[in-house]
């Protein structure tokens, strides 16, 4: 068994959740925050049999698109003004960041 952990953008999360239910995959959605943008994103935990991993990855790929996002400048406020960038910077946020982890034991009570 594997645990697929996928960090996706909030905009894609409902579409992906619906697609997972349609295909009978079980998932848990967590409200998370990206460390860099400090903006909300969504993390899915999807427990599947090994042979289902490719199907889940395809579904994530189909339902999550990459977009550019602007990072607002943060005032140095006593910090190092040399590193301060006074204008918004555009970053490309991926469709999904995915980790596939082995599951040692699975049990439901
Ligand atoms: P954030 O950490 O908010 O990152 C958003 C986007 O900002 C990233 O998109 C990347 O394009 C950029 N970025 C992140 N750290 C950067 C840095 N140190 N310098 C320059 N640009 C940087 P993605 O790479 O597609 O990541 C989207 C979200 O996925 C991340 O949101 C984070 O929540 C998660 N993520 C990405 N890589 C991860 C990892 N290795 N471990 C855990 N979570 C990760």
UniProtKB/TrEMBL annotation:
Q: Which SUPFAM superfamilies match?
A: GlnB-like
Q: Which InterPro entries match?
A: CdAMP_rec (IPR010375), N-reg_PII-like_a/b (IPR011322), N-reg_PII/ATP_PRibTrfase_C (IPR015867)
Alphabetized PANTHER family for the sequence? CYCLIC DI-AMP RECEPTOR A
What name goes with this protein? Transcriptional regulator
The lineage is: Bacteria, Bacillati, Bacillota, Bacilli, Bacillales
């Amino acid at each position: 068994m594997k645990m697929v952990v996928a960090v996706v953008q909030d905009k894609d999360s409902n579409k992906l959740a619906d697609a997972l239910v349609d295909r009978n995959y079980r998932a848990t959605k967590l409200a998370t925050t990206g460390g860099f943008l400090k903006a909300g994103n969504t993390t899915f935990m999807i427990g599947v049999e090994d042979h289902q991993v490719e199907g889940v990855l395809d579904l994530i790929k189909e339902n999550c698109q990459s977009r550019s996002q602007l990072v607002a400048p943060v005032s140095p406020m006593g910090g190092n003004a040399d590193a301060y960038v006074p204008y918004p910077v555009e970053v490309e946020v991926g469709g999904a960041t995915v980790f596939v982890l082995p599951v040692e034991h699975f049990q439901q009570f």
